[in-house]
Amino acid sequence: MSAYKLYYDSKDAVSQKFIDELEAQGVEYEKVDVSESEANRQEFEAFKARRMEFEPFKQWGQSGLPAVLLPNNRIIFELIDLNGTSCSLTPRD
User: pTM for the complete prediction?
Assistant: First the structure.
């Protein structure tokens, strides 16, 4: 299992940008497409229920997708945080 996990909706253009960026960085990650199956949707809903980071999304009636779970247990919701503008996922030696 990968240390990174992407929760996303394959029907969402922003989710595709996250996939493109992870691929460009060469990051190995597990994909959980919530639109693919009920089991994936339930996994995401259970994850979201356990994490306070999703509270603002819940208050505004938003899904919180896409969301990348990092090895340090941090969650990235914004592409700017993923693409290296404010941080980089690319491992450093």
Answer: 0.83
